């Protein structure tokens, strides 16, 4: 009887103890199946619940508990845990499976960070064939913006890097994460929070920007002082965006079949001369008739359509081209072709600037058994006959603080290793304020996360646009300089990619080198490895007669040229003389010699100073020398 009473008492105690943590709690969207948490650091967990009720968190043998605050919020912290998994995360009665502990990075910026692996990235097919890596997971924060700080992201879920999901991941972040996993042997989580075309001030707290001087100050103050008005304006704009996206996403199938049919009467449509003219707007429909002598082995060559397009042949959907992709040469099924007259119809949309464009010279034709049939010349087109105008959608996300409030603030309780960043193109026209803006954003993020000076690694702008031998007024060169100056902040690192851009594409397809160069910076900045991570950097400069002698650091085993027998990319000038190219040569492993023009006593020397400079100076790791400008006398 005595033992029975003791057992009964223990059961009562156990029952009371278990019920203490039965209350319902909600978690932010970041906490879900497949998540990765940061190793070797205090891990924060937070959410909402019933005030006064208890909440307990357990993971990998560690347990913590607390009480929900009067405002219904709670936050708890677990001690440092080593890498591993999979584990089960338990928060009261909630169980989250497939949780790993490893390294977590935020991947921020604009379209070059957002650029998906499936979008013609060099080497992507090899990655797809390899099948991904179950220890790498991505969380894509949906594009969103807000005039007020949000406590959760609007959507998103953790996705394992398998053969299906991998195609949608940021290419730069994937190649970075892959190296992290391979070299550190730990799971890796990437939180993608990026948006194409966006300026740095959109990713920075408007309250901070409102106190600064710059082109952004007036807007920042307006957002802060007229918050309610902006909330209403954003709500209306978001409604317009949803309507636009619904109109754009899929054409009515019956309408499309009718408009794309050979029998459709387009006599009331206007004429357009492609690719020279571009009066297209909204949801533009264009048609072109052509004649075939055979229906066998017919291919369509039309690689350039900006941005999205539905391509029809004789009323049948032939191909859908998404944004960020090119239209590869298409084999047209013979069963939808006719001997004689056929019609090619394109439904084109550009949600970026509402001006779709189709084709480029010498790149618009059909191949009929190897013979070219040009598609250049007169087409019929309609901007509004088939479908109505698209509603106007403003880019309010570009405004100070808007993306910061919706896409950064909700992440700041989540413990991370650091951030990788690729942005600057949208600020190049205001390069003079970028150093201050960018440094402010980095400091803002670090203070918001409260993790101290976490590693912040960024990409310097690639070479881009028409190549000019001398371009002293290049906005992109000045922006690159501002990025270099940001390295004055502690625990920052910069990947220079002045050698792998593309003249005609702001989105260079070599993302592998970008991700791997960022990883080199991570090894030094985040993991404190003593390794060579950058291309040659100017250490000192002095004059010797009519020559300039530049001493470099970060040369590794020595300077070398990727091509030719002379160093390319140097220009000199002064206030009285325009800049001009000068000859330069490697003297030894750390030294370059430049020959100055006759009579130049004082001036400025610049290297790789253009939108798209031709350069060839690297170190033994083939990392390019960093752009710079220095005055001399």
UniProtKB/TrEMBL annotation:
Signal sequence interval, chain numbering: 1-21
All residue ranges annotated as the Sialate O-acetylesterase domain in the record: 398-508
Cited InterPro entries: Galactose-bd-like_sf, SASA, SGNH_hydro_sf, SIAE
Top-rank taxon: Bacteria
Gene Ontology BP terms: carbohydrate metabolic process
Ribosomal protein found in the keyword field: no
Protein name: Sialate O-acetylesterase
PANTHER family noted in UniProt: SIALATE O-ACETYLESTERASE
Organism field: Algoriphagus ratkowskyi
């Amino acid at each position: 009887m005595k033992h029975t009473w003791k057992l009964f008492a223990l059961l009562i105690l156990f029952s009371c103890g278990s019920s203490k943590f039965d209350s319902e709690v909600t978690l932010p969207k970041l906490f879900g199946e497949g998540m990765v948490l940061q190793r070797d650091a205090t891990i924060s967990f937070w959410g909402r619940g019933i005030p006064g009720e208890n909440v307990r968190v357990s993971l990998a043998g560690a347990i913590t508990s607390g009480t929900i605050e009067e405002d219904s919020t709670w936050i708890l912290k677990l001690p440092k845990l080593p890498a591993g998994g999979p584990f089960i995360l338990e928060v009261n009665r909630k169980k989250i499976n497939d949780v790993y502990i490893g390294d977590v990075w935020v991947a921020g910026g604009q379209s070059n960070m957002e650029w998906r692996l499936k979008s013609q990235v060099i080497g992507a097919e090899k990655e797809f064939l390899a099948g991904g890596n179950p220890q790498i997971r991505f969380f894509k924060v949906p594009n969103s913006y807000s005039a007020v700080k949000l406590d959760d992201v609007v959507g998103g879920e953790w996705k394992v890097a398998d053969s299906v999901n991998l195609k949608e991941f940021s290419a730069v972040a994937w190649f970075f994460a892959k190296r992290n996993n391979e070299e550190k042997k730990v799971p890796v989580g990437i939180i993608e929070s990026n948006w194409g075309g966006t300026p740095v001030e959109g990713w920075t707290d408007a309250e901070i920007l409102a106190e600064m001087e710059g082109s952004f100050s007036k807007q920042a103050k307006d957002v802060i002082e007229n918050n309610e008005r902006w909330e209403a304006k954003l709500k209306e704009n978001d409604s317009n965006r949803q309507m636009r996206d619904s109109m754009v996403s899929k054409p009515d199938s019956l309408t499309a079949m009718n408009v794309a049919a050979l029998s459709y009467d387009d006599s009331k449509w206007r004429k357009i001369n492609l690719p020279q003219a571009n009066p297209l707007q909204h949801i533009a429909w264009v048609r072109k008739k052509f004649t075939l002598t055979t229906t066998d082995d017919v291919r369509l060559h039309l690689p350039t359509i900006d941005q999205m397009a539905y391509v029809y042949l004789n009323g049948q959907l032939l191909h859908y081209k998404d944004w960020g992709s090119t239209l590869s040469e298409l084999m047209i099924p013979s069963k939808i072709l006719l001997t004689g007259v056929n019609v090619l119809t394109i439904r084109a949309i550009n949600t970026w600037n509402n001006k779709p464009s189709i084709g480029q010279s010498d790149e618009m034709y059909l191949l009929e058994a190897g013979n070219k049939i040009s598609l250049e010349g007169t087409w019929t087109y309609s901007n509004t006959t088939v479908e109505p105008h698209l509603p106007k959608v403003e880019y309010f996300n570009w405004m100070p603080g808007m993306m910061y409030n919706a896409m950064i603030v909700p992440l700041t309780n989540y413990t991370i290793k650091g951030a990788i960043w690729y942005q600057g193109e949208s600020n190049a026209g205001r390069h003079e304020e970028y150093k201050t803006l960018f440094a402010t954003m980095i400091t803002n993020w670090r203070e918001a996360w409260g993790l101290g000076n976490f590693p912040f690694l960024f990409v310097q702008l690639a070479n881009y646009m028409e190549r000019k031998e001398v371009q002293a007024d290049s906005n992109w060169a000045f922006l690159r300089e501002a990025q270099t100056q940001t390295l004055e902040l502690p625990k920052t690192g910069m990947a220079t990619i002045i050698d792998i851009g593309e003249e005609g594409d702001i989105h260079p397809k070599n993302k592998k080198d970008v991700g791997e160069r960022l990883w080199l910076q991570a090894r030094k900045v985040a993991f404190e490895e003593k390794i060579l991570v950058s291309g040659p950097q100017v250490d000192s400069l002095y004059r010797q007669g009519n020559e300039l002698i530049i001493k470099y650091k970060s040369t590794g085993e020595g300077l070398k040229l990727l091509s030719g027998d002379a160093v390319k990319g140097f220009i000199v000038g002064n206030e009285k003389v325009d800049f001009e190219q000068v000859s330069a040569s490697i003297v030894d492993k750390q030294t370059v010699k430049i020959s100055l023009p006759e009579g130049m006593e004082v001036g400025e020397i610049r290297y790789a100073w253009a939108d798209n400079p031709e350069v060839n100076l690297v170190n033994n790791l083939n990392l390019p020398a960093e752009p710079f400008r220095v005055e001399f006398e």
